[in-house]
Amino acid sequence: MKTSRWIILAVTLVAVAVVAVMLGTIRFGVNESLGALFGRGDETTLFVIRELRLPRVVLAALIGAGLGMSGVALQGVLRNPLAEPYLLGVSGGAAVGAVVAMSLGVALALMPIAAFGGALAAVFIALTVARATHTRGDPRVLVMAGVVVGAFANAAIMVLMANAEASTVRNAVWWMMGSAANATWTQNAWLALYLALGGGVLVALGRSIDALALGEDSAAGLGIDVERTTRALYLTASLVAASTVAAAGLVGFVGLVVPHIARRLGATGHRALLMSSALVGATLVIAADVLARVALPPAELPLGAVTAVLGVPFFLVMLRRMA
Amino acid sequence: MIAFSGAVVRYPRQEKPALDGVSLEAPAGGITAVVGPNGSGKSTLVRALLGRVALSSGTISVAGSGTAQMTRVDIARRVAVVTQREEAVFPISVREYVALGRLPHRGAWSAAAPDDKAAVSSAMEATEVSSFADRTVDELSGGEWQRARFARALAQGGDALVADEPTTFLDVAHAMAVFGVLERLAREGRAVLLISHDLNLVARFAHRLVLLDRGTVAAAGSVDDVMRADVLEPVYQWPLVV
Q1: Beta-carbon separation of B100 and A76 below 8 A
Q2: Which of A81, A33, A54, A40 is nearest to A259 (CA)?
Q3: pLDDT given for residue B233 in this prediction
């Protein structure tokens, strides 16, 4: 990808982030917002911008970056342009793991690990079901298997919530619809750590994904240990997606849409694709979160609903192209 | 040279082995063609060489070294493989696609070295894909795509090239062009192992033939030794005019 496009992506991300800090129930000007970011301004402005808005914008950016990278890795390794953590049931499985952890009172830092366990179970079941149909070449079958696993995960969460208190159920439902509303710096720090580790592994494996995207036999001919690399990619893409679910619930379709946007922008090799998708994903989810906040004031829309409104038509167009 | 010695491959839930003690050699400087009817084990040979199926017994060696003792990268540096089918799901330019052939020679993080760039350029020229190097692979015709695949294999370098049914989707002119590339590689000293079902083309270009029948070597030798009706007809179970 050309250097100028990287610069445009980075500048767009920063610009959207600044706008996101400005907008909300209370609106701030550019100078006021930038001043508050650097510690200048009255107490209320400083509190709203630095303790409420900024953590939320950072969380949205991290979610978008993680889901974008996870989508790139899953699409590449599965050679499936429809693959993404939400549609494959990975996010649903992660949600079950996180809900179980929440009900057991597990520490915040370990939530991604619990979600990771659920995500791994989900990806294993989805792949096993898809392989059992002996239609491995058809990308739509895997998506169908993933959707079924996701539906099962939803049912499992409902069972887990059956005897919970009303407030817990409300929180869980809100979280399942995806939200960056309760962002904290501690939570962001943990998520950033998991994403840095997972994203680093994915970028390191970028060239292997290039080879795997040609097919397993071709990848083997290029010196790739197909089984080991594929396993590492599933594990890492699931960990990255699960970390975002643990932090903000189910945010669908980002992993589907973002890699295709990055490809359109000229990113072709998977290393460039992973990094550009992190930037595009961050920008997209910050923008979606702003939309969630300002579309129907004073009510706030679930972030997952906004990304679904954007993502579903995209999915249908992709499906039609593959038909 | 690529050598199979007593290679046995068994697939799960299959009563009979797909390869049952196959021994054959593809020497440097020549085209060795493996022919045989469907299900004779031709493609299993390639999958075994790629490490995609394990040998129950026997060995495979490349330039005298056993593949069991080599890493996948070491094997890829010595043998380039053009697999039977390959479809680029995500569009990349032909130049980027050919450059993937250099993967076994590059570290995880290193940029393309002058050697890599030279190998890519020379492979593209040899296969005449330079003129469409900036097009994406999903825009190519069947013949162009196959040439790009050979360019990637040439860029990979090494002592040997394996091509599994490289002319399946090509018309006669493009098929002849592919064989022209294989001939040149053999002349340059590489061992070329060709898997093919096209007896006519193989008879014209190969230096040695190996006839497989239900996982075993039914005949091996020069083209004249193998391309005989009394050798081929029992294997293909069909009257042939040679």
Answers
A1: no
A2: A81
A3: 87
